[in-house]
## 1
Amino acid sequence: MPHPGAFGLLLTLHVVLAVFVLGPLSLVCVTAPVLLRATPGPPPVLLLATQLVRVLAAASALIVITGVGLVHQGSFGSVRSLDDGWLLGSLALWFVGCASCLGIVAPGMSRAIADVEAGRQARRRISAVAFGAAVSTACWLVVAALMVIKPGA
């Protein structure tokens, strides 16, 4: 089914944002525990990773905005409204994924930076950061599956 005009442009933007925002966000989150294991490493690397998590998690809101725009553009296959269960589930999982990044991964990395700067080991932060990374990555994977499968639609 072709997607011409504004709808096709918005759909393209939605998919490109998902790839180029969530891909790097997942990569940084998943490699964060490895960076912590490598400490005492250069704090600039840890600072960059922390900033990337914060910026990319916030930028993922653009994916939601374009997705909502797609729903309001009209029927997309079996999309009827934002009341569709798979869309509501996707929104909830996006929120949990972002909350995990911004509430667990980024603060854990910041605490690890403070530990390194104080001469302590950052390794004690690994389990919390790894947990946050696993939760966020699992959320993004399930959202991707929901976008493709559209269960109940």
## 2
Amino acid sequence: MDSLTFLEKELTGPGKKQIDFKPGDTVKVYTRYKEGDKNRVQQFEGVVTGISGGGINTNFTVRKVSYGVGVERIFPLYSPAIEKIEVVQRTKVKRAKLYYLRGLSTKSSRLKRARETKEMTQGAEPAPQDEDKPQA
């Protein structure tokens, strides 16, 4: 077994970092930066516009609009600089690559939220309903 295959199995094996998001989801990516002798963590929040590659070469693109200017950034999934990836909102899209978001304004580029399933709300209890109020 060559060293690249061994490294890929070690990084992508069970219990390791997995993709738990898909295109259209809003994510926060926490990235570690070294400035001089200090380390800091900076977050980049935006919509995942695509996932490319496979195995150890998996990359994902995140797009956000900052001060009216669209900013896209490509992150390697298995980079040691990425501290964590947090899913903020899940949405429902019909495409694997969301390049059409580039041409839309901020307000028109909003995506439909996905329905919450039992998997997404792990352990969350449903809100109690008042019996006094009539059903609409």
## 3
Amino acid sequence: MERESELIGAVGFSVMTVRPGDTSLAIGIGDLPIVSTSYFVNLMESASVAAISEFLEPGETTRLVRVELEAIDAVGIGTEIRATAKCSGLSGRDLTFECDIYDGERHIAHALMKRAAVERVSFLARTAAQSFTSSKPLS
């Protein structure tokens, strides 16, 4: 990572409009036509990536390690929600983000998210090798 001292405080944003297919009802994890909390995580991840993209070395990326999510309120179809993510910590290759989602001024969700910086090619090679060695032949 470049300019590590500047990472702390870096902010990213992401926006989405809730579509019918984004609801808990549509993806089968509930019976309410409200945005699924899994989309909250996706939106916050997008904001986190945007916050630090300029600080990554060529060939470097991040992956989600942990998220603690508090869904404060719900939103329905057609609502535009926006996420903010602020890098609040750096420990080795681990980055911590404070994330929030809003519908206008209404606070919808809050999360603490940890992402790990990885070198893309070696990470994918290691993941592929692990998948290959853990596969069982079909009988």
## 4
Amino acid sequence: MKGLAFWAVILFFIGHLAGQTQQGSPADEAPYGPYPTNYKDVVMKWLNEQLVDAASARIEWQGDPQPADLGKNGEHIYGFLVQFRVNARNRFGTYTGMQQHGVLIKNGEVIKGLGLGYR
């Protein structure tokens, strides 16, 4: 009977550890911040501020957000990298063609844009 109790305790701890890994904790979020489940909304809001004609934007998402550090020279800029291609109208009303872009999201906000004309 002691052997059965031992294995029950072991299985309990394994299940507990697996549950913690799936749910995540504040320590798992640092330094990237929480996973941006609403990343498409965040990107669209940001694009509305960046594009001349955001309503015309055609977007191809290039996968799910991935943890990334986009800092340089020993400086760290942590967040979740979202890559996408966008085709939108320019100031002349013509489509620019699909262009690769990306953003770094942290805490529900774009903290860095990647592509032409972004910081």
